[in-house]
Design a protein that fits this description.
The structure holds two protein chains of two kinds. Helices cover 24% and strands 35% of the residues of chain A. Chain A has eleven helices and 24 strands. Chain B has a domain of 39 residues. Chain B has a ten-stranded mixed β-sheet with strand order 2-1-5-7-9-11-13-15-17-19, covered by helices on one side. In chain B, strands 3-4-6-8-10-12-14-16-18 form a nine-stranded mixed β-sheet. The chains are: A alpha/beta, B alpha/beta.
Chain lengths: 478, 415
């Protein structure tokens, strides 16, 4: 039995679970549970009201069903909406107080929380199931006036900022999963960069689902005030479990005049086993608002995990001269399914957007790029460039491209191109001739295929992502 | 609308001589249509063109009973000059004439009242509506090894005294082994604000060739929908050209199933729109076996307040290795209020394929205009030259030179 476990862990090294005492909300979704969550987080009344409003709205909403990957009906009453390590009920003041078991978990994941061990200053906010357990480098950031903390802390300490921006990009009534998140979100990160400040280090959040039967509903809110810059990284893993777990997060970005936000994700939730059993349903709403003139939001994502990935990090280009970018690598293997892409909504004048999407599918998996480029009639002189390439490995998998292109302005232009192909025999032959085996050759070619996107990632992440690309495709050749 | 549909259906049945079996089939189609009604934007395929709203806004309430008892007079002035051709003439939905004067009559068979049960794999409410209300439809069989000497022109004509708001037309073609046909659809409309629903089905056997040119260039106020289903066997070729310009609204759908190896499908289209027109082309090319090929090129020129939509889909199933699929759509927006929407879609389940698509839209290139003007042309001439060149690219894809010239003349493109 143990050996079998170990064998499994070879394929997904983050698949272990931590045995730790937890506090959970009662199973199910109802007003009481929402009150419980709000209460345990010591939230002010306006927050609870906000949640309840979302819950009311949720009752009339239906799950969307237009997506390509279908999934069995989720019983929303059979999920724990709140689960926290018992030791975290009193948030530790410093890292010495942190439960050693949690510390060990993060070390195992390669995210050392001890600040002295960090290489070159990446501030980390670690979210374990439903709560944020630690945030590093706080002092250094506070010096500059940067606020980087968990969202529950922000609700208590910076209610004005939260009130002003929460729900402005993703409204309460947006769609089913976003509304579900608004009602029951448990934790997440909050970032505020004051005017004119360039954040001196990468900010990072590491999400970990540990408990079984729980859903993770985190909410991230990043505000870049005038003329500021921030680069934010997000990573996620979960233990291997036979049942499917739901992850429905909301991420909101707001960039004011001349501000820039760079948001990178390496998503490596447990993808399920070889036969498609278990795995995370990753139904995430990510949206950025270029509110001010000359602002810029750039999304970079490497999607290798999850049984089903269903997300479209989007940019609303409201300010004049604002820029939206989307770089994505999505890899599906075995029975994974992904329906991902982006939306670029051009509202302001002279707005620009660029979409580079690389999809790789292998095994029995199914991958869809779905994107919207909408240039409204007021968005003069705007332009978009989209390129989405798919690579297929084997004839049991699928690769699909569904772009929606709307141009309502004669002074604006849109260019879109897409290709689908496989790795050519010549390329493989060339690599093998030079002494690489077939798997290494494929790794090399795939990395080349993804290079345009990998280049966009911060250095440490790029190395990790490159490795991840190789691991995800292991066993899919030959 | 439901009562109207039911009453008109009763009348239609009474006025014709359908067998009990046929009536059952028709009733079934009617039920299907009643269940959904006209498609609205909630249907994925109608996302960009909400025909339910378009009909409501332009026509209002529809009626469906057509009185086909008395023949209409054929006005010879509608005939295309300078091109000897065979004719099929529809006037107000009634088939008035089928004439193959230039052909060996023994090699063409015209079958009346075919089995109504549709063998279409794809269905939608409008196809159901068509099947429920078409009262008479023919199947034209081109016999083995026969190539039509002259093109066949189908005239879709409506006159001022049309007695029904909705006209449903249907034709079937069977191209037996190694046969070929050139087919031109031309519409002439004097009626105002009718909904015309055309359904064509083509069965292409081994080595046969279909060339279909659909021309809608005369200005009219009708709302039209046309559906072409093409099933292709080994080594067959289909070429479809769509000129979309005259009607108030028209949606051309082409559904092509490449069932036989080495079969190929070519779809080319032009939108040339003025004056609040809203047109759509939706294609769906299904590669169902290895070694098939498809090519699509759609270009739009959009002037004042117009909207064109291109929804193109290439589907490749897991057996269709060595597929070659290509799709390109380009649009020039001339007016601030014009709009171009595209959804070029790839759905691919085989790995050894070469599929690509591209889409570009924007305004006329100012540098090119400057170049031409600096050589002595005025702005209008430069613009015309550039637009002609842009559209000519598609017209040059037409493989029949006689028809190519005819179409050039029709849109007034000079070389």
């Amino acid at each position: 039995m143990r050996e079998k476990e170990l064998e499994k862990l070879k394929n997904y090294k983050y698949g272990f679970s931590t045995d730790i005492e937890t506090i959970k909300a009662p199973k199910g979704l109802n007003k009481e549970v929402i009150k419980f969550i709000s209460n345990i987080k010591k939230e002010p009344k306006w927050m609870l009201d906000w949640r309840l409003k979302a819950f009311e709205r949720l009752k009339v909403l239906k799950e969307p069903n237009w997506q390509k990957p279908k999934y069995p009906k989720i019983n929303y009453q059979d999920i724990y909406y709140y689960s926290a390590p018992k030791s975290a009920s009193e948030k530790p003041k410093n890292l010495e107080d942190l439960d050693p078991k949690i510390l060990e978990t993060y070390n195992k994941l390669g995210i050392p929380l001890q600040e002295q061990k960090r290489l070159n200053g990446i501030a980390v906010d670690a979210v374990f199931d439903s709560v944020s357990v630690a945030t590093t480098f706080k002092d250094k950031l506070t010096e500059k006036g940067i606020i980087f903390c968990s969202i529950s802390e922000a609700i208590q300490k910076h209610p004005d900022l939260v009130k002003k921006y929460l729900g402005t990009v993703i409204p309460i009534s947006d769609h089913f999963f976003a509304t579900l998140n608004s009602a029951v979100f448990t934790d997440g990160s909050f970032v505020y960069i004051p005017p004119g400040i360039k954040c001196p280090m990468e900010l990072s959040t590491y999400f970990r689902i540990n408990a079984s039967d729980t859903g993770q509903f985190e909410r991230t809110l990043i505000i870049a005030d005038k003329g500021s810059y921030v680069s934010y990284l997000e990573g996620c893993t979960a233990p291997m479990r036979d049942e499917n777990q739901l992850h429905a997060a909301n991420v909101e970005l707001v960039a004011l005049d001349d501000a820039e936000i760079k948001y990178s994700t390496v998503q490596n939730w447990y993808p399920g086993d070889k036969d498609g059993k278990g795995g995370i349903y990753n139904f995430v709403t990510k949206r950025g608002l270029c509110k001010g003139n000359n602002s810029k939001i750039s999304w970079t994502q490497v999607e290798t995990g999850s049984a089903i990935t269903w997300k479209y990090p989007s940019c609303i280009l409201k300010g004049d001269n604002s820029v939206g970018e989307f770089y994505s690598i999505a890899i599906t293997n075995n029975h994974q399914k992904a329906d991902t892409g982006t939306k670029m909504i051009h509202l302001g004048k002279n707005t620009k957007s660029k979409i580079i999407s690389k999809g790789i599918s292998a095994g029995f998996s199914d991958m869809t790029y779905r994107g919207l480029v909408d240039i409204s009639s007021k968005a003069l002189n705007s332009n978009n460039y989209t390129q989405c390439d798919s690579l297929l490995m084997g004839n049991k998998c699928g690769a699909h491209t569904v772009p929606y292109i709307k141009n309502k302005n004669s002074k604006s232009s849109i260019a879109h191109e897409a290709t689908t192909s496989k790795i050519s025999e010549e390329q493989l032959h060339y690599c093998q001739q030079r002494g690489l085996n077939s798997e290494e050759s494929v790794g090399l070619i795939v990395n080349g295929f993804c290079k345009e996107v990998l280049q966009q990632l911060p250095m440490e992440f790029a190395v990790e992502a490159q490795k991840l690309v190789g691991i995800s495709l292991e066993g899919s050749v030959g | 609308m439901e009562n109207q549909l039911k009453n008109d259906f009763e009348k239609t049945i009474k006025a014709s001589d359908f067998s009990k079996k046929d009536i059952d089939i028709k009733e079934n189609y009617l039920k299907k249509f009643i269940k959904t009604g006209f498609p609205n934007r909630k249907f994925e395929d109608w996302k960009f063109s909400d025909i339910s709203q378009i009909i409501k806004k332009n026509i209002g309430e529809l009626d469906f009973y057509n009185d086909y008892s008395s023949p209409n007079k054929i006005d010879p002035s509608i005939f295309v000059d300078g091109l000897e051709h065979n004719k099929i003439i529809f006037i107000n939905g009634r088939i008035e004439k089928i004439e193959f004067n230039y052909e060996d009559e023994s090699r063409i068979e015209i079958l009346d009242q075919q089995d109504l049960k549709s063998n279409l794999k794809y269905e939608n409410p409008l196809i159901s509506l068509n099947n429920a209300f078409t009262n008479k439809y023919y199947k034209i069989v081109i016999k083995e090894n026969y190539a039509l000497k002259r093109p066949l022109i189908i005239y879709y004509t409506t006159t001022e005294n049309v007695n029904c708001k909705n006209i449903n037309l249907k034709l079937d073609f069977l191209l037996e082994k190694n046969s070929s046909i050139k087919l031109i659809d031309i519409s002439n409309d004097l009626s105002k604000k009718n909904f015309i629903n055309i359904l064509n089905n083509f069965e292409l056997k081994k080595d046969s060739i279909l060339k279909n040119y659909k021309i809608d260039n005369k200005e009219n106020d009708n709302i039209k929908y046309s559906f072409n289903n093409i099933n292709q066997d080994i080594n067959s070729i289909s070429e479809t050209f769509v000129l979309s310009s005259g009607s108030n609204f028209i949606k051309n759908e082409i559904n092509c199933n490449l069932n036989g190896r080495y079969s190929s499908a070519f779809i080319n289209g032009i939108f040339s729109l003025m004056d609040q027109r809203h047109h759509e082309i939706r294609t769906s090319v299904n590669h169902l076996i290895d070694n098939t090929k498809s090519y699509q090129l759609i270009k739009s020129v959009l002037d004042d307040n117009t909207k064109s939509v291109y929804q193109g889909k290439i589907f490749v199933n897991q057996f269709a290795q060595k597929t070659d699929g290509y799709q390109l759509s380009k649009a020039i927006l001339l007016s601030e209020n014009s709009e171009f929407n595209a959804k070029p879609e790839l759905e691919i389940y085989a790995d050894d394929v070469k599929c690509s698509h591209g889409s570009a839209s924007g305004s006329l290139n100012e540098d090119s205009i400057f170049y031409l003007m600096s050589r002595g042309l005025n702005y209008k001439q430069s613009k015309e030259l550039l637009l002609n060149g842009f559209l000519l690219d598609v017209i040059e894809k037409i493989t029949d030179s006689e028809i190519k010239n005819l179409i050039k003349n029709l849109i007034g493109i000079k070389e």
